[in-house]
Give the backbone structure.
Amino acid sequence: MTAGSTGKPLSLRGLAKHYATADGRVIEALLPVDLDIAPGEFLVVVGPSGCGKSTMLNILAGLTPPSAGEARVADVPIKGPDIDRGMVFQDYALFPWLDVIGNVEFGLERKGLPRRQRREVAMRYLEMVGLADFAEKRPRELSGGMKQRVAIARTFATEPSIIFMDEPFGALDALTRSYLQHQLLRIWQEHRKTVVFITHSVVEAIYLADRIVLMTARPGRIKTVLKVDIAHPRDPTSDEFRAIERRVYADLDEELAKSFRMEGRDSGG
Amino acid sequence: MTASAPAGKRRRGWAARLGGRAAKLLPYLYAAVGVIAVWWAVVLIAKPHMSLLPSPLSTAQTFVQLMASGELPRDAAYSVGRVLAAWSLAAIVAVPLGFAMGRWQRLERVLDPVVELFRPISPLAWIPLAILWFGIDEGGKIFVIFIGTFFPILLNTIAGAKNIDPVLIRAGRILGCKDDASLFRKVVLPASLPQVIVGLRISFGTGWAAIIAAELVAARSGLGYLISNGMEVLRSDFVLVGMVTIGVLGVLFDAVFRWVDARYNWIGE
């Protein structure tokens, strides 16, 4: 299997987003963020709902412009979506009118690959996620876990240098989830793309990440960045795993308490 | 996008589909037999005058006569031709307009009140104006059918274009649809196609119903004319032949649309 382009570095400088509501109020979705992500790094962003992590990801993907600051991929500013930056969505976002292989071929066709070649490439990536036998099925015939594997194959098939994953396993049951985490790590280790992965799950974050970015809620900003120096495959029951988990939860509890207080206030007003 | 399936497999599928279609026709056969039986019973028991209600047999004889003389095929062709022309014109205008209104909120906000104002007006209410403006030539009837078919197509296309899951749009942009044109072709169009087909199908039905009314009032050809002329010369067998032909053709057109729908509707059963 060709490795394609390996990961590129990503740098965020003062990246911020605010929205104006209909009545003229300004909502700070994301306070200025400075962050450097190394080529081939697996970065996981953890935080409570409303911490702006999805906003940040959408800006990095080029789907939303930032209100201030800039993000660069290998020194090139991000202006809009680019097929060199892939994205895996929580709700899979498979095209229901295409069969499985048609979905995987979608980006390849946009890249201008001739028909026969894109079929070959798509087949290879379906094999990678173990779904070669399902190439002709429609997305609606697949389980949630299988759909997300198709989405992962679709994203890796275009050989992007950076892959964004927005709570990709959030809607799956625990068993499927741990299976897919394992698969994703294997694929990532093989391809060495830069990955920015969003999750609610602390265990998932520690299991996957080179580095964890902990974000605070309302307004969203980075609270802590911590390195996870445990060799793969990681054992969630090991002492070092548990130690990091305790640290993350300690930071997170503070934030959750804060955001619950705010929610109470919101609903009160 | 279909892969080359083995020929044997394809042929079996064909035979099975033919058998399935024959089974679907059976209820229509029962219905026809039932209607004819009741009709005949009424004729035998009540013995109405020929000019009021002819027997099924003499109606069938008239049918054969009108077929042989070429009158019935000619009238049917006129009616079908008018509906096809007006419906195609309506589709050419309503489908692009529907997409524009479905995707651009600003345009929808401006045009929606206009649509809502004209929509409840039955196409039949336009017949007097159509006669004043276009006389009883083809123009008037095509105008009436255009009005009748325009709104179902427009409203369904708007609904289809509007209700596209936004995540599919984002996925399309991420996967290399760089401009609105490619996004439209690869995502918006296929995503809304089932709903557009629904609109085309419904509108053909309303158009088919309206053409008869338009021809009843102002025409010298068409199935509506056959019926109204039959009334004037006290030939209820002409009327009945016209009515049966309208019903049978209507069912046939609907079957064509069902077939198209089954082919292009990715929603499935």
In short: Chain B touches chain A through 22 residues (CB under 8 Å). Residues 83 and 207 of chain B are 6 Å apart (CA to CA). Chain B is about 80% helix and 0% strand. The domain at 55-264 of chain B is CATH 1.10.3720.10 (MetI-like fold).
